[in-house]
Amino acid sequence: MTGTLFTLTFAVAAPFWALMILLPNWSLTGRIIRSPLIVTPVLLIYAILVIPALGEVLPTVLSPTLDGVRDLLGTADGTAAAWAHMIAFDLFVGRWAWLDSRERGVPALVMAPALVLTILLGPIGLAAYLAVRSRWVRPAVAATPEPEHLG
Fold first, then answer.
1. Predicted TM-score (pTM) of this structure
2. Are 123 and 71 in contact (CB under 8 A)?
3. Using an 8 Å Cβ cutoff, are 39 and 88 in contact?
4. Of 96, 140, 134, 132, which Cα lies nearest the Cα of 113?
5. Distance set, CA 143 to CA 33, 42, 102, 138 (Å)
6. Which of 7, 43, 97, 114 could form a disulfide with 128 if both were Cys (CB 3.0 to 4.6 A apart)?
7. What sign has the CA pseudo-torsion 67, 58, 75, 91?
């Protein structure tokens, strides 16, 4: 069952990545991606893997050591749970970046590589997006007048 859950993890997240990268201007993409519930299938897989092993997981995460975390992740169940954990957070971060980019008007051709990096290398994709996002200011922020100084 663990192998199936491992394989299923990315399979249930991939359609959302495909929408953000390949169909960013489709009206349904926005409606779907706006929901934070898109991570729910991956979270359920994570729960199926972690809840039965809470007796092993909790002591390791409450008092982490390199050896303890290595031993936990060195099992099939631990690897599958870590994979689900990464996929869930990467998807949530990718969702945030995509939504933020839409508000700022970041071109889809700029976003696609950042999203691909987020899928493949998580934090590097986030760093890539953070590096480019400041070039586009949100319209609401850009339209806000400077505060008047009392004097």
1. 0.86
2. no
3. yes
4. 132
5. 26, 39, 17, 9
6. 114
7. negative
